[in-house]
Amino acid sequence: MCRAREEEGEFHTLFERLKDKRQKFFRHFKRGLSKFETFKELLHTDNQTKNAQWRCSITTEGRLT
Q: What does pTM read for this prediction?
């Protein structure tokens, strides 16, 4: 399940499609893309994680979604 996260997970499959459709993005995340990006930048420095030997860490965008 963890290995398939990058190919089948909601963040990796849905997020990129929603970025192109602003109204659907807003309905799904309850904020516009520009607000999401601003919020992501605010959290980025406090929310950084490192990759482990057996798994990749979840990105700030992934955690926020």
A: 0.59
Round to whole Å and give the CA distance between 47 and 59: 9
Contact 63, 57 (CB under 8 A): no
- For 5-64, how does the pLDDT look when each residue is reduced to its tens digit (9 = 90+)? 777 777 778 888 888 888 998 998 888 888 888 888 887 765 566 666 666 777 777 777
Residue spans of alpha helices (H) in the chain: 5-8, 10-20, 22-29, 33-44, 60-64
Task: Characterise 55 by phi-psi region: left (phi > 0), alpha (psi -120 to 50), beta (else).
Answer: beta
Query: One-letter amino acid identity for 55?
Result: R
